[in-house]
Amino acid sequence: MKLIGSRASGKFDALSDWDHVLETSDDFITLNSMIESALCVKYDKKSDIHLLTLIDLEFNMHDFSDATNKFTTEWEEILTIIDSSEFSEFWILAVKHLKGIYRNYLLLIDLGIELSLKILRDKFVSQHFGVENYYDFFAFKKLGTGINKTLAPLFDVTGLPTHTKLERIEKLRAINALYAKLTPERSGEIQQGIDNALARLRDHELVQAAARNHQSWFSETSDPTKEALIAFPKTDEIDIDGVLASARDTGVEKVGCWSLLPTMPTDLGARLLARGFTWGWQPHWMALDLSQTLPETPAPGDLEIRENVGGDAWDVENLPYYDPAAPLKLSERTSHFGAWQDGRVVGQSAVHLSESDPTIAGIYNVGVVPEARRRGVGRAISRAACEWARARGCRYVLLNAATHIYEKLGFRSLGYGQTWWLHAPLPTEAVEIVEFVEAIGRGDVAALETLPCPPLDAMLACKLTPLELTARLKQPGSAQWLLDRGATPHVLALYDLGWAKSLPRLLAERPELLNRRRGIWGATPLHEAVERDDLELTKLLLAASPDLTLKDHQFHGTPLGWATHLGRTRLIPLLEAYARKTFSHSG
Predict the structure, then answer these.
(1) What integer pLDDT is reported at residue 28 of this predicted model?
(2) Which of 144, 350, 516, 580 sits at a 20 to 30 Å CA gap from 440?
């Protein structure tokens, strides 16, 4: 028997499979209707778009797969259900079963789509040509004449190989566009919901891609003799004590940890703070879609951007993130750019391609010498890195930076992460102290009852008191446990725990808490409210009559002085009005 078509020849042709089936315009109309039914059905008396179900799965799935034999067994069960159901129910039945069975993004999307189309095709052939399956049918049918050209988008979507989550998002977007074509009368009511869901999914995956790019960058550019890094841990198996022991043995005096939010493991903050890490700054992830046209970036006319191809060391001072004694290590995936003006380097940037995903690049080490700032040098040197990445086929450029600087280049915010830092000397806390702090950070009140209790108001190695730590890690149960045992209340800690309504009564009963200083700066709660630019907290504290003449120990400024220096325009009038009122009463 002679086989005709792409499968027989061993070559893939997106149109040929359906060319054997579709011969008349009526065939196309029938199949079009069947595809529409497969993409949008009524289920449990509720309109349900299977694409939305897939998007929901993408949100909730993790980066692991169950055993193949388990999937095979369960898939056979799904096929049995499908055989006894209308084919238009295939998507929702298959996806609902797959949700807890096989957690591999590639197979969930690709396999689900392909198998649904195969079942659809076989049912069409059986219904219209009286053969049991498609392969029996196309063995003797003549090649079609191209009547199904309008179905090409379907194969463009389902035939795409996908190697990364971002590629699968693009596939979902293409399917969504096809759905809108097939059912324009219904697409409007859910189009915005799908677009919003895809946007959130894409942003989530871009943040994950930023973490992977950072890991790759750290591994190639960090000096392990100077700094140890715990980069974006994902599981409970992280060995923090092992990292610290290794750092002590090798003389490393700085250990850092970077994490996405929410953290993995969920108690990462508690584990780190218990071992003396201090709460660090928050990385701000931003992304630029390189398929868009980059805006022009005005810069000095004599500014020249050069790629540092040879990795030459520059004789320059006060250039942020640059050390002439340790120039950047270059590779095929890492490049370095310098901004030159009047024969000297005034700025730099670096760009790094992800090893696991060639469509992603990260920008690092953007810096400008002080005397050349606010002239467009930073944007110009960043744009050069973006163009380099685009020339190498990247779709997205990611970075961690301040919003206002890069928004002008087209970058948009994706969200924040968290860092923790441990500086020399590395502490060797007693085991029971570590266990106690971890229990506080986890909200494990039962464990707290069994552990030795250090002084409740003591400053821990992480530079927080136990009560402040509960506020940082959002553990009201631990906070109440400490207060019940005599810990001194801290106004800001209680406020951060969501107990603002209880503060007026507390401050009336214990007025000394209102002006209680903390930390090396000796700041009062009102100083800290000003630093946060928190209007509601400032009003709450002013209502309790604080002492506005108190100055911090570091900068010797009053709360009003802090507000003026920091430009807290909302708070300055309130503080000035309270100061005038206090002065008039005392006069």
Answers:
(1) 47
(2) 516
